[in-house]
């Protein structure tokens, strides 16, 4: 009678051990599934962030390219204005410069 009671206790312990092993395996599988899901979510967020950063970069490149064209046009206009101003000033004082040069060339000093 004691042997059958001991045998029943052993059977009960083995059944409890198997049940515990099933619980541990289920928890391990659930953990692995959650880790896989978290990794997929993180990869998705990274891809979204990368796409957003790339879009922002392309927008800034486009804006700076547009500004570059505007800057080139502005610089060309400023250059033309300065050239026009210099030509006008040269024409205005050219007679005075010629007279001054003639005076210095033709004047003889002892």
Automatic annotation (TrEMBL):
Biased composition (Basic and acidic residues): 40-62
Span list, region Disordered: 40-75
Coiled-coil ranges per UniProt: none
Any GO MF annotation of the entry: proton-transporting ATPase activity, rotational mechanism
Taxonomy, superkingdom: Eukaryota
CC annotations in GO: vacuolar proton-transporting V-type ATPase, V1 domain
InterPro entries linked to this entry: V-ATPase_G
Keywords, in A-Z order: Hydrogen ion transport, Ion transport, Transport
Subunit text: V-ATPase is a heteromultimeric enzyme made up of two complexes: the ATP-hydrolytic V1 complex and the proton translocation V0 complex.
Function of the protein: Catalytic subunit of the peripheral V1 complex of vacuolar ATPase (V-ATPase). V-ATPase is responsible for acidifying a variety of intracellular compartments in eukaryotic cells.
NCBIfam families linked to this entry: V_ATP_synt_G
Family of the protein in this entry: Belongs to the V-ATPase G subunit family.
Protein name: V-type proton ATPase subunit G
